[in-house]
Design goal:
single chain, alpha+beta, 10-stranded mixed β-sheet
Amino acid sequence: MTLSKLVFRNITRRRGRFVFTLLGITIGIASFVTFLSMGGSLKSEINRESAALGANLIVTPIGSCAYEQVSILTGELLPANITMTDVAKVQAIKGLSAVPVLTEKTAIANKPVSLNGISTAQMKSFKEWQIDRGAYFSGDDEAVAVVGFAAADQFKLQPGSTFVVRGEKLQVKGVLKETGSRDDLTVFIPIPLAQRLFKVGDKVSYLAVKVDDLALTESYIQKIKETVNLGVVSDKQMLKGVLSIVGTVNITLQMIAAVSVLAAAFGIINTMMTATYERKREIGILQALGAKQRTIFTIFLLESGFYGIIGGITGVFVGLFVSVVAAPYITQNAFTSFVKGSGSGALVDLKTVVGSILFSAVVAIVAGVYPAWRAARLSPVEAISYE
């Protein structure tokens, strides 16, 4: 009998124990991969959204925290605390262009969707939008909507379609071309209409600002602060802050998953120690037939490694499946919006898949070192006389 056949026969001898031990490592790796797959792509997603924002500076109310900066990138609901008077003062500063945005939430067909009140002509120029079908706003006095490409597809909206916002029926005038950003999932209406429907007076949520000379960014920040009593953050500062928060969350999730893998490792140790005691007579026969300590040690180590490889492979597939299935049901907020949305949170590269399987195998092999050592150290007399 070859070594591989012997190893396979030994671990499947007790099928119940084999299944439950395998489930332990599978669940551990599945949770590890799930957290990685749902959080691993956050950095690239955040960078993409930051670039799509198209702003060098973001003007927010004083005291705005990093959570609200995340909300700006994800298009989530923000309080409206900046008056149109302050907007006009910022827009009057030479060398920059500032576009106000009012972020709100509405529902179409009982499903939530982001809604932005915008200065129509300014925003089209600011973000260089193009129309896929229908037409764009002709002015800020229209009571119509332009919807993002993905939102139009999700809610089956075409130019001429209607939907209700706060009790008022709005007609879709046009659909934007796909941008690859959160704009694809957003409904846009003129700021005056949004302010009236959501009863926020003459206020907006934030201002997106482009400067003519990036070398003078700090100077523009100072000018804005001197002109209005508002907070100002550069796109780089906002990106750094958001990535720092999300990075901390991601590391925490991975540590939680690592604990579950560690728990599975103790399950392997328990299984292999039990096997060592149950198979003392078999070990004695192997020694009588000339098997060296190194051979016995290798047999037990291969058995534990087999648990790790098989559990790692099944865990990866289970983890990917869970992440794909779970993502649509995550409660939407400023942080998890990155995981939902484009669906990129449910993707893992080949490097991560291979790394997870290797991690599982290494953990299992390390867990099997002590039981294998104990088995190899049995004396022939002790082993063969065991009943």
